[in-house]
Design a protein that fits this description.
Number of strands: 0
Low-confidence stretches: none
Order of helices and strands: HHHH
Distance between the termini: 62 Å
Radius of gyration: 26 Å
Mean pLDDT: 89
Structural class: mainly alpha
Number of helices: 4
Largest sheet: none
Helix content: 55-70%
Shape: elongated
Length: 78
């Protein structure tokens, strides 16, 4: 798909040099750059949203479950 964008001249010049150094087309360079930008931000905010949902819940175990877990561990020499 073709698209037209406007970017600052200094970024354009740097991108041209990088594309030449990498021996790829300008389109390939921009495609890779945008792809990485999108990939990095795909899950942006997920942790914050989960913390908001589950942050008020206690993560401690019921005492009986904690006792059962502790008693199931055998003593071993290290």
């Amino acid at each position: 798909m073709k698209t037209a964008i406007s970017i600052p001249e200094e970024i354009f010049i740097s991108a041209e040099k990088l594309a030449k150094d990498l021996r790829i087309s300008r389109s390939e360079l921009y495609s890779r750059a945008v792809g990485e930008f999108v990939k990095e931000r795909r899950f942006n905010g997920v942790t914050e949203k989960l913390n908001k949902i589950y942050g008020k819940s206690s993560s401690s175990l019921h005492p009986r479950i904690r006792e059962a877990q502790a008693s199931s561990i055998t003593e071993e020499e290290w």
